[in-house]
Task: structure prediction
Amino acid sequence: MRKFVIYSFLIWATAIGFCQKPKLKTTALDTETLENKIYIGFDGLDNNYYIKDNIFIKQDAKQKWEYKNIALGKITSVDFINPLQIVIFYENFNTIVTLDNQLNEIQKLNLFDIDNTIFASKIGMASQNQFWIYNALTQQIMLFNYSKNTATNLGNPIPEAIKYTQSDFNNFYWIDEINNWYAMDIFGKVTLLANVPPWEKIQIIDNDRLLFSYDSILYCLNNKTKVIYEIEIVEKSFQNFYYKDQILAIFTNQQIKNFKLKLP
Result:
């Protein structure tokens, strides 16, 4: 199976003519010890986010805040694209919780109580008081207005299994089982952006760029120019990565290493 994946990667790279990948240099900034926490990422206000023992943690240079809700089970995902309104999703209880910047509860929505046909498996913050929701029951993307408790289906059901999703205020992105990368905007328009090479971890930056790791090497795909860049890092193995505002965080189960990186 692994030989097949490597072969598929080479076929993909050869098809677009970029077997010899240009490299992007990084500049080391600092290192932080993780202390048995799962690192999620950081925002533009110098806050770092973690999960430890199913407790959500926000921390800056001076303070630390925590949120836990044992009754809702395991945290499925966290969305902090708006640091003033953080979204936590508990899939087992079909529940969305929003928090303020000090992790006080703003709102708790049990989707079963609102509409028993919504079985959310992916959620994210959207614009205009809305959440993106992927409804696993109908295999459809919807916008849920949390101020009115109303849902609007967008587009047609997605026939292929979804491997990865990500969203911002204006777009819901997904990568399906054959690595096709799509975007849907808030009006329901679907765009096929690219077919991405084999990957293990991935982060979508925008419609034109994404980062992905494969076999402990980190890459940047520029969808506009169809160039794949190899990102130079010294780590031989890592659990995951996170990129924002020209800062690349590489993390293992023990450390976070931050680098300066400008993407093409």
Q: What stands out?
A: Residues 54 and 74 are 6 Å apart (CA to CA). The longest helix spans residues 2-16.
